[in-house]
Amino acid sequence: MKKSILDSGNDVTLQEIIKFKSIKQLETVNFIEDLSDHESLVIANLSSVCKNILLIGFDSLKIPLLCMMNCSKNSKVNLLTKSERIINLFYQYNDQNNQISLREEMSMEDIYYDEINSSELYKDIFDVESLNKNKIDVFSQMNFDLNIIELDSFQDEENFMNFIQEHNVLQNIYLIKKNVEGSLEKKNNISFDRIKGTTLYIVRKN
Fold it and tell me: Average per-residue pLDDT in the chain?
């Protein structure tokens, strides 16, 4: 795929992120499928320059795997998820690494999981934990230079705003993924600017 992250026209939001992180554009996105969408390219490029990545609320391993396949070897990718399927996938092996349950059919999530589990590097890079308020409180005290949050994972808007307020969004990148149409309204001193061609919004404090 020969598509540049800089193919963003006058997208001021993305240009500011590129300047902020001194991003060197990737000519190709590393993944087990051919990804040509602009959102995947943006996430892959950001992953390539960020050492500590936090993903919150995703119910698929696609974006975590995309981050892992494009970040450096000494990076860390953390996923907080409510998906019981993902949690079960990572705990389906006993201490002897023998599979506890056999799969009748292979889904894309199984394929993504197998890609992660077959690589010692990815297993070292990746951590997955159940998403709950206690975990959010713990991770809110940690520093991640790239944060991508699935907005629907926060049922309580106050918890989401508190999480954002806890962090210094001037030093790190905070992106909100919102799949439903419509813009995100500014709240208090926090605004959200959409990256063109994606469902991603960068969080800003005014």
Answer: 78
CA pair distance 144, 154, nearest whole angstrom: 19
Tokens of 93: 């092996």
Share of the chain above pLDDT 70, in %: 68
* Beta bridge partners of residue 203, listed in sequence order: 192
pLDDT-flagged residues of the chain (< 70)? 1-28, 92-105, 154-171, 180-183, 206
Extract the tokens encoding 147.
């944060």
Q: Are 160 and 133 within 8 A, CB to CB? A: no
Q: Which pTM does this prediction carry?
A: 0.84
Domains and CATH numbers, the chain: 12-94+102-205 (3.40.50)
